């Protein structure tokens, strides 16, 4: 007779013991009532957070120099978005998971041209601005090298940029139309018109906030507010919520990797952490098939506490 | 940033309290949740479940 | 129609198969094995209950639209119900996961039960994420502008644009809840089909 080896971490012997009454519908009903009541109590006692969204108007009024400098970075191609790569542009080859440059392979399917989308097109939308219209004509009819030269001269002068009496103040000779463009864009932002222009480029109705969010994220203001609330990546921010509310504790392992080498100082941290978490998730999924991992429950004997009544009755009989 | 929360008795809207330990930084709120989860798990294992006599009679 | 013709129908075959797999007394049993006697067993149904409250509160939020809770105290209260039921949902689900792990609940042909549970957990995380970026407040702005880097790095960001609130909201209220509910139903039905995993035995040899 062939004896099949019993694998205690995989197999079970069929249950030959007794059954006792168990009212699962009653249990479910009680559970729903208890959970619903607990939810109401927590909602009444603690409420929920709602920190108002930051607009470009808020940002540019609170930190006009930061706004102007960010606008310049969009113009001179040094901003986060300008250098991002896919899915926005080809500014860089993006992150690599070993030989895999996944984002680059997919390509720029959400095209963002920082010069056109953040600067030129919104400025074109402003009515009755003869000086601005002239500047924009000067810009559009200029050669690429002329534009580069203007932007470079403005960038060199930008270390002394300031803001006074509603105007961006900078001494930037040979910068062509750039000073007026940056100043008018800042004024447009401070009025709230830029928020609207960035969203309605695609049409009247939209629910896509890609452009204003990318522009906001390129500046320092949004990040400074997040830093204040401990939401930044280097402070386990992924787990956290604004104020004193509990956040997403279940993301502890995901954000953990960002705090430790090599991820903490890698330019490929995002794709590396994603790759690692995918592997660990597959590991969790396939636990029943992984020797060692599936043996821990039996070896740690926590089950003796769960089923102590059962084992006690076995010992008695 | 303004905040409207008329329903809450103790809105948790002030800036969060955080605990630092070596490279670990965790909010008090999250720590409470995690500690409560561990306590709940242990309590669920340890506290006796009602209906013991009924089960004993049915073995 | 002849008897054999009726027997060959898809309807008849499907019904017989389902009733054979899950007869009413198995679908809604009135007894459990005597080893089902621990508080750890209530966390599955607690997770399910929390999911019901999450969906109910989400439906209430849907009635007046995604901006309602910013300007109405009733709306804000409903949002609070939604937030705290989600916290309870994850709380109970993780305690349930810990319990099932230490029971090695995949034993005896129950690997699919474990796996559907894990996938449901992962889908729940994705559902919560799309919810966080649908709040239309500072939290959404920050979470979306940060999360985009992780998702973009995988190439998926070209199609799953976390900065597109309309897309994220629709994933949150239509696509992901549908998947989560279907997976949860499958998970619960598997528990009913296979029964609750028995305790560990020691020194057992099975003659085959």
Largest sheet of chain B: 2 strands, antiparallel
- How would you classify the helix and strand content of chain A by structural class? mainly alpha
Q: Strand-residue fraction of chain A? A: under 5%
What is the domain total for the residues of chain A? 2
Task: Describe the protein's topology.
The complex is a heterotrimer of chains A (317), B (59) and C (208).
Chain A: E1 3-4, E2 19-21, H1 24-46, H2 56-62, H3 64-75, H4 102-106, H5 114-124, H6 130-141, H7 144-157, E3 162-164, E4 167-169, H8 178-191, H9 193-199, H10 210-218, H11 221-228, H12 252-259, H13 269-285, H14 296-300, H15 303-306, H16 308-316
Antiparallel strand pairs in A: 3-4
Chain B: E1 18-21, E2 24-27, H1 28-46, H2 52-57
Antiparallel strand pairs in B: 1-2
Chain C: H1 3-8, H2 10-21, H3 24-27, E1 31-33, H4 42-64, H5 68-71, H6 73-102, H7 111-132, H8 138-153, H9 165-194, E2 206-207
Give the tags:
heterotrimer, A: 317 residues, mainly alpha, 2 domains, two-stranded antiparallel sheet, 16 helices, 4 strands, elongated, C: 208 residues, 9 helices, 2 strands, 71% helix, 2% strand, globular
What is the compact description of this entry?
Chain A folds into 2 domains: 56-224, no CATH class; 229-285, no CATH class. Chain A has 16 helices and 4 strands.
What does this entry look like structurally?
The complex is a heterotrimer of chains A (about 325), B (about 60) and C (about 210). Chain A has helices at about 25-45, 55-60, 65-75, 100-105, 115-125, 130-140, 145-155, 180-190, 195-200, 210-220, 220-230, 250-260, 270-285, 295-300, 305, 310-315; strands at about 5, 20, 160-165, 165-170. Chain A has about 325 residues and is mainly α. Chain A has 2 domains: about 55-225, no CATH class; about 230-285, no CATH class. In chain A, a hairpin with a 2-residue loop joins β3 and β4 (about 165-170). With about 60 residues, chain B is α+β, with helices and mostly antiparallel strands. Chain B has a domain at about 20-50. The model of chain B is unreliable at about 1-5 (pLDDT under 50). In chain C, α4 (about 40-65) packs antiparallel against α6 and α7 (about 110-130) runs antiparallel to α9. Chains in contact: A-B, A-C, B-C.
């Amino acid at each position: 007779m062939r004896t099949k080896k019993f694998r205690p971490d995989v197999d079970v012997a069929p249950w030959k013991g007794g059954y006792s009454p168990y009212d699962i519908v009653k249990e479910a009903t009680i559970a729903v009532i208890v959970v619903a009541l607990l939810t109401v109590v927590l909602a009444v006692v603690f409420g929920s957070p709602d920190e108002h969204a930051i607009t470009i108007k808020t940002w540019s009024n609170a930190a006009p120099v930061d706004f102007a400098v960010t606008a310049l970075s969009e113009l001179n191609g040094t901003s986060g978005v300008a250098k991002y790569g896919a899915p926005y542009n080809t500014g860089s080859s993006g992150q690599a998971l070993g030989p895999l440059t996944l984002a680059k392979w997919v390509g720029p399917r959400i095209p963002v041209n920082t010069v056109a989308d953040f600067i030129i097109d919104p400025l074109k939308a402003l009515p009755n601005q003869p000086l601005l219209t002239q500047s924009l004509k000067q810009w559009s009819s200029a050669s690429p090298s002329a534009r580069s030269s203007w932007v470079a001269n403005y960038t060199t002068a930008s270390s002394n940029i300031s803001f006074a009496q509603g105007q961006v103040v900078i001494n930037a000779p040979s910068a062509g139309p750039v000073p007026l463009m940056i100043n008018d864009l800042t004024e447009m932002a401070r009025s709230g018109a830029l928020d609207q222009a960035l969203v309605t480029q695609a049409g009247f109705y939209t629910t896509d906030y890609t452009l204003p969010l990318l522009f906001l994220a390129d500046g320092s203001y949004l990040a400074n507010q997040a830093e204040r609330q401990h939401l930044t990546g280097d402070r386990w921010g992924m787990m956290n919520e604004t104020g004193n509310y509990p956040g997403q504790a279940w993301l502890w392992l995901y954000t953990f990797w960002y705090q430790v080498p090599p991820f903490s100082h890698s330019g490929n941290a995002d794709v590396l952490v994603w790759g690692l978490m995918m592997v660990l998730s597959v590991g969790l999924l396939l636990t029943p098939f992984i020797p060692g991992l599936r043996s821990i429950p039996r070896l740690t004997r926590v089950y003796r506490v769960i089923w102590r009544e059962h084992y006690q009755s076995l010992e008695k009989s | 940033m303004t905040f409207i929360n008329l329903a809450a008795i103790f809105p948790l809207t002030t800036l969060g309290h955080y605990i630092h330990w070596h490279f670990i930084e965790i909010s008090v709120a999250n720590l409470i949740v995690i500690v409560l989860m561990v306590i709940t798990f242990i309590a669920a294992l340890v506290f006796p479940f009602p209906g013991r006599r009924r089960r004993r009679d049915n073995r | 129609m002849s008897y054999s013709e009726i027997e060959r129908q898809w309807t008849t075959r499907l019904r017989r198969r389902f009733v054979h797999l899950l007869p009413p007394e198995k679908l809604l049993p009135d007894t459990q094995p005597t080893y089902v006697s621990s508080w750890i067993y209530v966390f599955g149904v607690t997770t399910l209950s929390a999911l019901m409250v999450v969906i109910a509160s989400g439906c209430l939020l849907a009635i007046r639209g995604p901006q309602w809770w910013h300007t109405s105290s009733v709306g804000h209260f409903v949002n609070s119900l939604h937030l705290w039921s989600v916290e309870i949902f994850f709380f109970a689900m993780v305690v349930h996961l810990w319990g099932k792990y230490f029971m090695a609940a995949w034993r005896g042909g129950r690997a699919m039960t474990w796996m559907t549970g894990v996938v449901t957990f992962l889908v729940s995380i994705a559902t919560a994420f799309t919810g966080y970026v649908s709040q239309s407040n500072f939290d959404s702005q920050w979470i979306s502008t940060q999360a985009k880097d992780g998702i973009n790095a995988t190439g998926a960001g070209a199609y799953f644009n976390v900065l597109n609130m309309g897309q994220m909201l629709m994933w949150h209220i239509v696509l992901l809840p549908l998947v989560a509910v279907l997976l949860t139903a499958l998970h619960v039905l598997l528990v009913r089909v296979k029964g609750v995993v028995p305790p560990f035995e020691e020194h057992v040899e099975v003659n085959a």
